[in-house]
Amino acid sequence: MIIITPRYTIIEDGAINKLEEVLKNLNLKNPLIVTGRNTKKYCKFSYDIVYYDEILNSQIRFEYDSIIGVGGGKAIDTGKYLAYKLGIPFISVPTTASNDGIASPIVSIKQPSFMASAPIAIIADTEIIKKSPKRLLSAGMGDIVSNITAVLDWKLAYKEKGERYSESSAIFSKTIAKELISYVLNSDLLEYHSKLVKALVGSGIAIAIANSSRPASGSEHLFSHALDRLKEEYNLNVNSLHGEQCGVGTIMMSYLHEKENKKLSGLHEKIKMSLKKVNAPTTAKELGFDEDIIVEALTIAHKIRDRWTILRTGLSREEARKLAEETGVI
Ligand SMILES: NC(=O)C1=CN([C@@H]2O[C@H](COP(=O)(O)OP(=O)(O)OC[C@H]3O[C@@H](n4cnc5c(N)ncnc54)[C@H](O)[C@@H]3O)[C@@H](O)[C@H]2O)C=CC1
Ligand SMILES: O=C(CO)COP(=O)(O)O
Ligand SMILES: [Zn+2]
User: Fold this and answer.
1) Which ipTM value was assigned to this complex?
2) I need a labelling partner for 174 at 20 to 30 A (CA). Which of 86, 120, 210, 234 fits?
3) For binding glycerol, which residues are annotated in this chain's numbering (predicted)?
């Protein structure tokens, strides 16, 4: 099995100033930068720049030898996708820490997400990230706590369906989440932004090691993808973020796991507390959804993809409502 991980990972204040040195070391001379309107200010380079939401209708000339994604999740995901399509290296330059797409080999612009290639380099400037909107940094916690239920689901699929399971990437992914939860619950959060970036990078690498998003995406992500589907279907004007949705999903899915395994008692409360500590949403109201959308998302989540989880063959409306009520989500 071939495991491809980033060749350079730089996580420090001022890291963005090392981009040209990294390009030189990689013998890359003519990158195209993919970014967003809020993050173009960080692209102080002489290279061509394109906005991620203009890619689809812009003529991308094939002379580029690499793609650099500078920005949040969509900018990075779009750049990663373009690099994969063109068969050229991708460099991830996150300007915030909202999800593990900054390091993963996955492209999830829309569902189903697919396995592309890991960034050849990750350049995370903690000075820029620290100044990014707090809401994005809160969302990142949601995409990390989700590793807890993702690994519990993966183990369940191994036991109940004989699915391939990698103990090493599962332990790695779970430990990353447990360590960040412990830091958040027992500190003044002064180092939160840099610990969050390291956790998200680790989570992306765990996906690369497993060659699957299983270590970081289980029933809680199915719930989040179900919400995305309902947003589209009902044309809902809700701008909840991926990590925020996954955080609320993790509260509920960890509760389902707790009910089947006494050793996990108190898990969902601990996860909820860690999300609250960083001001991430823990209820439907804080996410911006009506109760009935949360209930409906819970009843369709198991159908989002062929991935066996604690949801098994799905929740009835009554079971879904009861779950959301007992966890305080509605
Ligand atoms: N490939 C993967 O493994 C994954 C990819 N994703 C992708 O991530 C997307 C969600 O990403 P999010 O970041 O949650 O939302 P987003 O990308 O939709 O929005 C982030 C917003 O924050 C802004 N922003 C970023 N850094 C900033 C800074 N330093 N200062 C001011 N504004 C800044 C961006 O310009 C953008 O408007 C999904 O739609 C999906 O495409 C999500 C999860 C995993
Ligand atoms: O969001 C992800 C990991 O955090 C990617 O997961 P999916 O495979 O569910 O799109
Ligand atoms: Zn995620």
Assistant:
1) 0.99
2) 120
3) 100, 143, 221, 242
